[in-house]
Design a protein that fits this description.
heterodimer, A: 521 residues, 6-stranded mixed sheet, 5-stranded antiparallel sheet, 11 helices, 20% helix, B: 262 residues, mainly alpha, MetI-like fold
């Protein structure tokens, strides 16, 4: 195949924003190339530079070895199918398609011949004199393709041309586009954010991110051997796991070594491991490479999507004291006041403020009409030592409630293997507060001041699961256990077998199903 | 929708009383002779014979049509490029320009015309030229607004598409921008030609009494002479000419739209 377009180190900036950061790309004759990436990755900008609607800030675009920067869009041997087709509303189907030929002042009979051939190529026979604005999206799309192809360009550019169609029509048009490309035998450059479209139609996929090319390859290459986590996530579904390369063909994650076929990494290099959900087999417990428990099963039509937990997260259990209602009423002033005792971290004592005490004790006072009354006096004397300290809240009318502040050592659990820490405190609540809660898990996290983080970079880790040993509808006074935990190792599996939630299973795969990738820079 | 259909009755009654009935009376007056009691009609076409046999009246009619046509043509010639330039400005500048163009229309047309009389009064130019200046000043904003609206509605992607298909700027204008902006030109013509052909106070104020147009004739016969029958006949002739010109403008619009094929 002959090289047709060479993009050489193209940079594009708009008002100081760099949209393309030095793109180099070769496109061959008769190739179906897809520029794939999320919106804002620069793929449409690159297409517009090739079309001639935009100028590159730096770098060159060559066609047949000639720099085309000086050639205006209307003289380039390139035609575009626009995202919303941009058909001329004042012209009918025939005149839309004939537009380019009339500009070139071709003879009427030749125009007629070429237009009719295009109309039959895209399957619009009988629609020649239809008003384009009254046509369906799929028909407009065909007119747009015919309008571009009739000029016999050497390159056809398609800018998200299928995105405006509904799913079934899109699939049909994908096949048709590929068919048309084979038939007319010219280069297609297709821009999309839809990975399925890219896999179905392309000879070559160019994955872009933030104005740079991440990977160029055939659909099979980019699917089976993505070069990094970004490409793996963009194409297809995948499990991506942090691991280390023990040595060639041996990789480790969650403290277990697994055979693989990858090599050429440094010893103990941190890597991303990808395993496709469809490559994992479910086997009886202890018969696979690792064991897990089924957390959820989703029916997806052709298969079930199973989430299995193979290693638990970091967890911390606290005691919840349910006490009886301790509201104090002041009959004279017609006021009521409520507050609960609470536990706090020794390290937080130094920065304790009145408003924080009120918030933590959930202190509030209200009058006969249920209007809130402000707490004007907050008295406490907390020393930076472990112990129990009295605290009181008082309103202007003299309504007072007393509680205890329990200062305790930090309640932290650190899990080295997960590289996570978690902290939570015991707390006091009344049965009514539990019953009235509309989002109990969220409230429990807040009441226990539960918090998890990554030990390495101190970033926050989500509390994934809250478990408790009470029935929140019928809770009575007493002490209860609440466990907070982070997300463990969850692996997605696609299977056609029926699996129940909660089932204990084994997971198995072959060494070549593991794909090891370098960490992204 | 059915329950709302009754709401149209007040409008129908209003239209009957205020538009249809006066029109019918106009027709009635035009075909009757002065001095008749309203109850005893005597039909005649004398009023029309009088209009066309007198050498003065068709001359006035011709002059009125000429004035309206020339005014409209100048409005298009000046208005289209102005609207085109405005539509190419940045959005903020566009809003400012449109504001500047519509600003004079906030003042009553009669007051503006008096102001022009003050300005042009000291200059020695023909009454005809003064009338043209007044007409252009009063009607140009309508033309610019109509064309600007049509131009700014054109999807910029269509222009990019035309370039993509090999059209240079001139061809893009001729094959895409112009045909898509024609509806604006047509409604601009309607908004300029119709009032221009029947206007009477601009020629009266700026023409210095020498420049008589059909609108002035109608005014004279109704107000000064009191010959309502002849005035009605002239009005009817005017109305027919206006209807015919509207019909042809519409046809023209459609024809140019289809004729892009050459």
């Amino acid at each position: 195949m002959k090289k047709l377009i060479e993009v050489k180190n193209v940079v594009k900036t708009f008002d100081n924003t760099v949209v393309l950061k030095g793109i180099s790309l070769d496109i061959y004759e008769n190739e179906f190339v897809t520029l794939l990436g999320p919106s804002g990755c620069g793929k449409t900008t690159l297409l517009r530079i090739i079309a001639g609607f935009l100028d590159a800030t730096e770098g060159q675009v060559m066609m047949d070895g000639e720099d085309i920067a000086k050639i205006p869009a209307y003289k380039r041997d390139v035609n575009t199918v626009f995202q919303h087709y941009a058909l001329f509303p004042h012209l009918d189907v025939y005149d839309n398609i004939a537009f380019g030929l009339k500009i070139k002042k071709q003879a009427k009979d030749i125009i007629d011949q070429k237009v009719m051939r295009m109309i039959s190529l895209v399957g619009l026979e009988g629609f020649e004199h239809r008003d384009v604005t009254s046509m369906s999206g799929g028909q407009q799309q065909r007119v747009a393709i015919a309008r571009a192809l009739v000029n016999e360009p050497r390159v056809l550019l398609l800018d998200e041309s299928l995105s405006a169609l509904d799913k079934n029509l899109r699939k049909e048009m994908q096949l048709e586009l590929k068919e048309i490309q084979r038939e007319v035998g010219i280069t297609f450059i297709f821009v999309t954010h839809d990975q399925e479209e890219a896999l179905t139609m392309s000879d070559k996929i160019v994955i872009m991110r933030d104005g740079e090319i991440e990977q160029i390859g055939t659909p099979v290459q980019v699917y089976n051997e993505p070069i990094n986590e970004y490409c793996a996530r963009f194409i297809g579904d995948s499990n991506i796991i942090d691991g280390t390369m023990v040595r060639d063909r041996l990789v480790r994650f969650d403290d277990v070594d697994y055979e693989c076929v990858d090599y050429g990494f440094d010893k103990d290099e941190a890597v991303d491991i990808m395993i496709r959900p469809e490559d994992i087999d479910i086997v009886p417990r202890n018969r696979g490479l690792l064991n897990g428990e089924v957390k959820s099963v989703l029916f997806k039509g052709v298969h079930y999507e199973v989430i299995a937990e193979t290693a638990s997260g970091t967890s911390k259990t606290v005691t919840m004291h349910i006490t009886k209602n301790q509201d104090v009423s002041n009959e004279e002033a017609g006021e009521k006041i409520s507050a609960s005792s609470f536990y706090m971290d020794l390290e937080d004592v130094a920065s304790l403020t009145d408003s924080e005490v009120i918030a933590r004790a959930n202190a509030q006072a209200w009058n006969k009409d249920d209007e809130f009354v402000s707490l004007t006096k907050v008295q406490y004397d907390v020393k930076p030592e472990v112990g129990t300290y009295p605290c009181s809240f008082t309103t202007d009318a003299g309504t007072t409630i007393r509680i205890n502040i329990n200062v305790v050592q930090p309640q932290v659990i650190e899990d080295e293997s997960n590289e996570e820490g978690i902290q939570a405190f015991d707390f006091y609540k009344t049965a009514d507060e539990i019953k009235e809660s509309v989002a109990l898990d969220t409230d429990l996290i807040r009441w226990a001041d539960a918090y998890a983080w990554n030990i390495e970079d101190n970033s926050r880790v989500e509390i994934w699961d809250v478990k408790y040993d009470f029935d929140d509808e019928n809770i009575t006074e007493g002490d209860y256990q609440v466990t907070f935990s982070t997300q463990g190792r969850e692996i997605k599996i696609e299977t056609t077998d029926r699996i129940e939630e909660g089932q204990k299973i084994g997971l198995k795969w072959s060494p070549e199903d593991i794909h090891v990738m370098r960490k992204m820079g | 929708m059915k329950s709302f259909s009754k709401m149209v009755y007040p409008y129908v009654i209003w239209a009957m009383a205020m538009i249809v009935a006066p029109m019918l009376m106009l027709v009635l007056y035009a075909f009757t002779v002065k001095g008749n009691s309203v109850l005893t009609f005597q039909f005649t076409i004398d009023n029309f014979i009088r209009f066309f046999s007198d050498p003065v009246f068709p001359g006035v009619l011709w002059r009125s049509l000429k004035l309206a046509v020339i005014t409209t043509v100048i409005c298009i010639a000046v208005g289209y490029p102005s609207a085109y330039i405005i539509a190419k400005l940045k959005p903020n500048s566009q809003a400012l320009m449109i504001l500047l163009i519509t600003l004079p229309t906030w003042i009553n047309m009669l007051v503006r015309t008096y102001a022009w009389r003050g300005i042009l009064g000291h200059l020695s130019m023909s009454g005809e030229l003064k009338v043209y200046i007044g007409m252009l000043y009063n009607f140009l904003p309508f033309m610019i607004l109509q064309i600007y609206t049509a131009l700014s509605k054109i999807d910029p992607n269509l222009i990019v598409a035309a370039h993509d298909l090999g059209a240079n700027n001139r061809e893009t204008f001729r094959r895409v921008i112009l045909p898509l902006s024609l509806p604006g030109v047509v409604s601009g013509i309607t908004l300029v030609f119709l009032p221009a052909v029947s206007s009477f106070f601009i020629p009266k104020l700026l023409g210095g009494g020498q420049y008589v147009l059909i609108g002035n004739l109608i005014e004279d016969y109704f107000i000064s002479t009191g010959d309502w029958n002849f005035g009605s006949a002239i009005s009817l002739i005017m109305a027919i000419i206006i209807l015919a010109s509207m019909y042809f403008t519409r046809k023209l619009d459609r024809k140019v739209g289809e004729q892009e094929d050459d």
